[in-house]
Specification:
The complex is a heterodimer of chains A (343) and B (163). Chain A has twelve helices and two strands, in the order H-H-H-E-E-H-H-H-H-H-H-H-H-H. By secondary structure, chain A is an all-alpha fold. In chain A, helix 4 runs antiparallel to helix 5. Chain B is built from six helices and no strands. The N and C termini of chain B lie far apart (64 Å). At the A-B interface, helix 4 and helix 5 of A face helix 2 and helix 3 of B.
Chain lengths: 343, 163
């Protein structure tokens, strides 16, 4: 196989960025519809069912509405910061997806491809760093609007993200030790073959910690205190309207999709079927991958329909005194196991 | 070539935002500028071929520490500093000292302008770990973690309310 010329590499990478961006956007768009429908069914309602078959085109109608709404800004707001905040959020959300593989490697035009923009040697850590930056979007949004509800929302958000980031990072250490690599590709590779190679089987505690911390990280119920509409109007994005509100919403959902894809890649065997008689290469791999991501996303909606919101002191207590000790315990046990029995 | 261009871009951003950190009277703007400085430094580490250090720079400084800074600044609602009078003498002294330091540094750089580039070195994560946990640095490394732990326990003890 010839090495890629520079323009071929550039074209290939551009195509990858285009495809991955659009996969994320389409998933986001239809996720909003799915969420509203499923939530409605859980509460014995119908949900949006008028625009298109089963209300499938509702998100497009919403988008058109948002585009044509008036953009408002509080008179006492810090104008530059107010405009910059949604941009920070969305930039961080889309930067994180650069190192995540979306599905198995496949052959096209006689070459090997994978839906992953950059296979960084520090892949998992890179995502960790970008999520750490994502919090600034929320913090700046809440502060710049010059409103006590938004400020309370962003204070809550910064404390919550900071606390649960620790547990999130620690939950990855076990699987990194098992794989002996930070590369997400290597971690998925390790889970090939039978179901018992999946990290959720060998690291169930880590998965539990990861999932809870990820829910808090993306501020979904039962951890949506930064928004907490019964207490803070709409939390940090109270003053946003029109498309800047839309951008905030997109960033939030892209983050949710990212943590679902990560859960699939790191814990649920990526694109491997988990059963030796079911092949997981080519198109089928994408099917398994999509199904797992969809399931995790569904669980997020399910949680929202089922659980009430935490109280703030409970949230802090749970993060620092339950999740982090559990994650550290998992690291210790895994380290001993890896030393004694080898990876 | 591209590396050089990127280096100058990030170096300029780092310097510019660092100047804002010092010159800005609103503490929140200073904090934001510091975040930009730290991110540009991280990019420079990445250009030097050490993605691990680059990512740690963002995670630890830009991610964790600066969020706490902002949290405290917003919680205390710190107002922009007003124009102070009467401390010009102290300021002038500091400025003079810093200027001498700058001249010395620039002089050193200019004197060693034609020194050959250092040999290529491996700054990958594995290599970093091997160096950190080699007998040469292991005890220092562990001693540092004990120091940090002691500081943590001390902070908790100070913050704890008397029963």
């Amino acid at each position: 196989m010839l090495p890629l010329l520079w323009w071929q590499a550039l074209l290939g990478d551009t195509a990858k960025v285009f495809v991955i961006f659009n996969i994320n956007m389409l998933t986001f768009v239809h996720m909003t519809w799915l969420e509203r429908r499923v939530l409605a069914f859980m509460q014995f309602r119908l949900g949006p069912n008028r625009t298109g078959p089963l209300g499938f085109f509702q998100p497009y109608a919403d988008a058109i509405k948002l585009f044509f709404k008036e953009e408002t800004m509080p008179a006492e707001a810090n104008r530059k910061a107010f405009v910059a905040a949604p941009l920070i959020s969305i930039a961080a959300a889309f930067m994180a997806i650069a190192v995540i593989p979306y599905g198995p490697p496949f052959t096209l035009f006689g070459r090997q491809w994978q839906l992953q923009v950059a296979d960084l040697g520090v892949g998992v850590l890179f995502i960790f760093a970008i999520t750490a930056l994502g919090v600034y979007g929320v913090v700046v949004a809440g502060w710049s609007a010059n409103n006590k509800f938004t400020l309370l929302g962003s204070l809550r958000s910064s404390a919550q993200m900071f606390s649960y980031e620790l547990a999130l990072g620690l939950s990855w250490v076990g699987i990194i030790m098992l794989a002996g690599s930070f590369k997400i590709g290597d971690i998925v590779q390790r889970q090939a073959g039978s179901l018992r190679h999946w990290n959720i089987v060998s690291q169930p505690l880590a998965f539990l910690v990861y999932f809870v911390a990820a829910t808090a990280e993306v501020a979904r119920l039962p951890f949506d205190l930064p928004e907490g509409e019964t207490e803070l109007v709409a939390g940090f994005h109270t003053e946003y309207s029109s498309m800047s509100f839309g951008l905030m919403q997109i960033a939030e959902y892209i983050n949710m999709i990212t943590v679902s894809v990560l859960a699939t890649d790191l814990f649920l065997g990526g694109w491997y079927s988990g059963l030796p008689f079911l092949p997981s290469h080519g198109l089928l791999g994408f099917v398994w991958f999509g199904a797992k991501v969809f399931f995790v996303l569904f669980v997020f909606v399910w949680l929202r329909g089922t659980l009430p919101r935490f109280r703030y002191d409970q949230l802090m207590h749970f993060g620092w005194k339950v999740l982090i000790p559990l994650a550290v315990l998992n690291i210790m046990v895994t380290a001993v196991m890896v030393t004694v029995f080898g990876a | 070539m591209i590396d050089a261009i990127l280096f100058y871009v990030f170096a300029a951003v780092a310097l510019g935002s660092a100047l804002v950190v010092v010159g800005q009277r609103n503490p929140l703007y200073s904090a934001f500028a510091l975040i930009v400085t730290l991110c540009s430094l991280s990019a420079i580490y990445g250009l030097l071929g050490s993605p691990f250090i680059a990512v740690l720079q963002v995670v630890v400084y830009a991610g964790a520490i600066m969020v706490l800074f902002l949290f405290v600044l917003m919680l205390l609602n710190v107002q922009p500093e007003s124009q102070e009078e009467g401390s010009w003498r102290a300021l002038a002294g500091t400025a003079l000292a810093l200027a001498v330091l700058l001249v010395l540094q620039v002089g050193t750089v200019l004197l060693h302008w034609h020194r050959p580039a250092p040999p290529e070195f491996d700054a990958s994560t594995r290599k970093m770990a091997e160096i950190l946990f080699s007998p040469r640095f292991l005890y220092v490394f562990e001693a540092t973690s004990i120091l940090i732990l002691a500081a943590l326990v001390g902070a908790v003890a100070l913050a704890k309310k008397d029963p």
